[in-house]
Every structure is written in structure tokens, then in C-alpha cells.
Amino acid sequence: MDNEGKKRGIVINDDWPGYSLDLFTYPEHYHDDIDSVYIPHGVIMNRTERLARYITEDFVDDNITVLCVLKGGYKFCADLVEFIKVLGRNSNKYLETRVEFIRLKSYMNDQSTEDLHIIGSRDLSFLRGKNVLIVEAIVDTGKTMKALLKHVGTFEPKMVKVAGLLVKRTPNMAESLPDYVGFEIPNRFVVGYALDYNEYFRDLTHICIISKTGKMKYKV
Fold first, then answer.
1. Given a cut of 80, is residue 108 above it in pLDDT?
2. Catalytic: 123?
3. Which residues lie closer than 8 Å to 201 by C-beta, 6 or more apart?
4. Catalytic residue chosen out of the listed positions 33, 35, 140, 196
5. Cα within 13 Å of Cα(91), Cβ side
6. pTM of the predicted model, to two decimals?
7. What's the whole-number mean pLDDT along residues 149-171?
8. pLDDT of 26
9. Which of 80, 91, 124, 152 is the most exposed place for a label (fewest CB within 10 A)?
10. 177-191: buried (b, 16+ CB within 10 Å) or exposed (e) per residue?
11. Residues 122-138: what's their mean pLDDT?
């Protein structure tokens, strides 16, 4: 696969409906709230392991500071870092990982606000001179990530790369993709694997398509 193919990740076509709910287990109280399983948990994990290998190969130094974007990125980040550690234990290249967190708010219901709202301290001075890997669950227009990268840059890190589990194809899609992409998906609102709709659905292990019923039930 060429670099462009790797950069786009696994591309899911616009007409992909997802898998029937009957084929998987999930919390029963969400039965009417999701339409389908869009990306099964096992596929997520396998792709995350592959991204960990790319990262291990690309980072020349022996340590990285992982900046996890909360709340949606916490499961992806935890699994990615664990795979990096496992790869290191089974090879002659071990990347020492320090994990830090930043919490952003960029969605209201199913709409992106496209503004950078940092909840808590904006001080990222601990990134100065460090190799930084920003880990985000989903990137659509890229405006929030662009603003975050600008903010991170003011603290003068040595290097910054971005890992995004999902990138959405939208009319105003991000001009530059993250350095590491899990899946490129159509412009559909997905939940699960820590991705939420007004704080619901984070407990789903699969990435799923929310139903109209689910949107109405949990709308604020």
C-alpha cells in the first residue's frame, strides 16, 4: 500500500449500511437507539494495532508524550498505547510513553461547533521540547484539530503528529488528514467505543449508527 493509502486508512463507502444488530452483543437498553453496528470492536482493535506499528516505526527517539483528547478519545488512546507497549516488549525498539490529557467540547447534539473549547487548564507547558502524539477519536472539518495544533505549537514541542481513529468525509472535510488514520467514514453520526451523543453510548464496545429514536430520546 502506498503512503496515501495508509494515510487515508480503511475507507468505508457511502452506501455501507453496517451490520445487523442481531449479529452482535450490545447493551439491550440501546436496542431501539442504534440502527446497526458500523465497525465491530474486533476490527477497531486490529486496525489500532496496525497504527501502533506505524507509530513505532516512525518515531526515531525512544519516548513520546501522548496527548489524549477527552472524552471521546480515551478508549482509542488506551488501546493504542497498550499496543505500542506490546510491540516494544516484543522487539528491539521500545517507545517510552507518557500520557497526558486535554478535554475539549466540540459537539452539541449531532452538530460540530467547530470552535476550540478547552475544559480545564490551557497550560500545556509540559509539552515543550517533547515528541508529541495527539490522539483524537474523530476528525470531520478539522477546524477543532487545527486550532488545537496551533495551541499546542505555542508551547514549542519538538515534533507533533496526530492519530485519528475516524475521519469523516464531509463537504468541508479536513484539508490535511491526521498522520495516522484508522477509518475514513461517510458523514454519518456514529456512537460507541467512547464516542457519545450527549454523554450516552460511550459504553458500547462497537462503533454504531445512532437511530432517529436515539437522537430524539437523548437530545438536549
1. no
2. no
3. 30, 33, 34, 191, 192, 195, 208, 210, 214
4. 140
5. 13
6. 0.89
7. 91
8. 94
9. 91
10. bbbbbbbbbeebbbb
11. 92
Closest to 168 measured CA to CA, from 145, 185, 181:
185
Given a cut of 90, is residue 172 above it in pLDDT?
no
Residues 89 and 72: their CA atoms lie apart, in Å, by: 28
Whether residue 193 contacts residue 41, with contact meaning beta carbons closer than 8 Å, is answered with yes
Question: Is residue 71 reached through a cis peptide bond, with omega within 30 degrees of 0 on the bond before it?
Answer: yes
The C-alpha atoms of residue 139 and residue 134 are separated, in whole angstroms, by: 12
Residue owning grid cell 509540559: 126
Backbone phi, then psi, for 71, in 5-degree steps?
Answer: -95, -25
Query: Which pLDDT score is estimated for 3?
Result: 56
Give residue 44's identity as a one-letter amino acid code: I
Give the pLDDT score at 175. 67
Residue 42 DSSP SS3: helix
Residue 63, beta-bridge partner list: 96
- Find residue 138's DSSP bridge partners: 166
Instruction: Look up cell 457519545; give the residue.
Output: 196
Tell me what pLDDT residue 59 has.
Answer: 87
Compute the distance between CA of residue 206 and CA of residue 44 in angstroms, rounded to an integer: 8
Burial call 27-62: b when 16+ CB within 10 Å, e when fewer: eeebeebbbbbbbbbebbeebbbebbebbbeebeee
CB within 8 Å of 186: residues ≥ 6 apart: 12, 13, 14, 16, 168, 169
